[in-house]
Every structure is written in structure tokens, then in C-alpha cells.
Amino acid sequence: VSDLFDKLTPLAGVLRRHGGGDATGDVDRPFDTLIEAVHGPVDATIHGRRVRLFGSNNYLGLTHHPRVVAAQQAAAATWGSGTTGSRVANGTLAIHRSLERELAAAFDKRHAMVFTTGHQANLSLLSALCGPDDVILLDVESHASVYDGAQLSRATVIGFRHNMPSDLDKKLARLPPGGRNRMVVIEGLYSTSGDLAPVAEIAEVVARRGGYLVVDEAHSFGVLGARGRGRAEAEGVLDRVDFVVGTFSKSLGGVGGFIVSNHDALPLLHYAARPYLFTASGSPATIEATREALRLSLDGDDLRATLWKNAHRWWEGLRSSGFSVSPTASPIVPIYTGDPDRAVRLHRYALARGVYTNLVLPPGCPVARSGLRTSVSSAHDESAIVHALDVFAGAARDLGTAP
Ligand SMILES: Cc1ncc(COP(=O)(O)O)c(C=O)c1O
Q1: Which of 170, 245, 266, 296 has the fewest CB atoms found within 10 Å of its own CB?
Q2: How far is the CA of 118 from the centre of ligand 1 (A)?
Q3: Is the CB of 145 under 6 A from ligand 1?
């Protein structure tokens, strides 16, 4: 009989190879980099050194907004530190309901549900609404929570090629007509590649072939659209999306997730979604901070303008240094090194010079897609962008820009 832990041996090997040490040490772990102190939305201390964060999801810099922090502190003082239970037991406070009403109104939808995390929103939606008689068609680059929710549902799961409406069309056409419900899941802005989804084209295919459309706006919420409601808003097709999923853990700077929809059965998920039923609800501080951050985001045109100005500057700067980056600018800019070792070298080079980025390595991606995930925020000032671009220009000279 094999040892219970044998299946983890390859992972330990990867960590040793790239992390220069054992997974229990604090220093130099390649993925869960230890942040020793935080000095602002995109400033921290790592390995004893002040660094600029070019690998957070703090797109609007709201983690340190005085109104958000004040709302959080007041909520803890008023409502206490936690709810101590599930939404269906003792965990629904008036402020949870208020946030749901505010989200529904913000998206101009009849219903909204708030979850403790965005991960649970996807698990809940897919596992409560889909079953063995249904088909889930997902973009192959979907987030793990979409894959996990699809698996939990026990529906038939079919992947279609990333951002390719024609492949979705082909796969829907092949399904026998009638009978099985089809749920199509895409993201608005893909978390690692920075690719923007062709939501309008996908919505057209879904409408023509029949099915329900889910758009996970985790990274596009706060970032895209006139009021920051995501890619579907930016493409003018919010009314053609059955379920918008989002998270509070990125541009809103908190933690939690949501679904908004015009389907009148959505509130039944309060009683049908196991990943929602059997977990404690978001803490009062989290919920009140989120309500304040939502208000700031909906009125945050200036923040979004700065974010996009930084995104274009960053993307163009990396490209002009010769790096292989995404084909279009967005607040998420991948740098492809085509080789895991080169990715680790580039990551360390930048970190040692005060620029933190995210490392992307197999098995989390194919070898050819190894590299860094970088991201910008409206909170990056001129000096941060200039410094980080200088560091990467230096890396291009010292390490090369392969592939
Ligand atoms: C596309 C997508 N969906 C869902 C999630 C999960 O969100 P949360 O961090 O709130 O659990 C993430 C976060 O990484 C994501 O990128």
C-alpha cells in the first residue's frame, strides 16, 4: 500500500526545485511569499526590503481608503467581530440584506446573493442549479472555482476553446436538441492572461443555441464598464447575462462574493446551495467595508481612469523592453518566459530590486506559459511605475527576454 502522502511527492519536488528549500521554511517560498509589513495598497515589506506590489488584485487601491477602513472599524464596534454562523441559522444580519439590495440595484437586477467568498459563489451556483441531467460548457481557462463547482454538480462538463465563440457554437450544436439544460460559463477578464472575453458574441451564441449564461466578473468588477460593473456592462450586454458572479476580494479590497440575476428562483439558493448553507457568513466588518467600497467603486470613474492609464503605460513599457506579453493592454499583464527556471530567475531579480510580481509555473500552467503575472493599480504613482519599468528594462538586459 502506498503511503497516504506519496501523492504529494511530485509537488514537494517542484517546491524544492523552484523554492530553494523546504516547504515549511518561511524564507524564499516561491508562492506564498511572506509579506512582513504592509505600508499602503501597493507597498509592503518582503524579505526585509520595501517593495512595490505589482502582483496584487487591489485594482482600485481601496484596501486603505479612509472611508472603507472607517466603515470596517465602526462595524466591528457595533455588530461585533463575527456572526458565528451560517446565513440560514444565526448569520443573517440586516447589513447582509442591505448589501444584497445594494448589489441588485447596482446591477439593475431583481436579485442578489452574498457569499462568504467568491469561490463559494461559483460552487453554489453550479452545484445547486446543475445536476447529472444538465450540461455545463466552460471556457477552458476558467478559474478553479468554476471547475470545482462543475464537478460538484455532477453535470456533464464540456470545455470550449478559450475566448472562442465559434468553438462554443460548435459544441452547443453537437448536443442533442431538447432535454438537457445548458449552462455556459465565462469570465469577463481572465485572471492570469489578462484576456478580455467577447461577452457580446458569446451571449449571441447562447441566445441562438439555447442556454443560460454565467459571467464571472471577479477581475473585471470595478475595472471595466462605465460604473465598474464588469465586462458585460462594458459591452452593453448586462441584460443578456443570466448570472453575474463577482468577488469582493479584488477591486473592492475585502473578502466575499456575490451573484446577481433576474431569475426569480435565485433566492431559493439560500436553501439549496450547500457551499452557502454550511459555512459562516461574512463578518460585519467585511460586509460594511464592502458596502462602502461598492459605493466608491460605482462612482469611481477617476480611479478607473488612473487604473487604465497605468495599465497602458505598464503594458507598453514591458513590451518596449522586449518582453513577450499579452496581445492587448489590461490591468493584468503576463510576461511569458516560456521556461519555469527563467520565470523563477526573473521573479527573484525583480523582487530583489523592490518589485513584487506573481510567479506562474507548471503544473498551474503549460510549460510554454510559464512566467510572471503582473498587475497594476490606480494606487501606483508615477515613481512606482517608473521604478518598476526600470527594473524590468534592467532584467531584459541582464537576463534576456526569451522566448
Ligand atoms: C475568476 C475568479 N473567480 C472566482 C474567484 C474566487 O474569488 P474569492 O477570492 O473571493 O474566493 C477568483 C479569485 O481568485 C477568480 O479569479
Answers
A1: 170
A2: 5
A3: yes
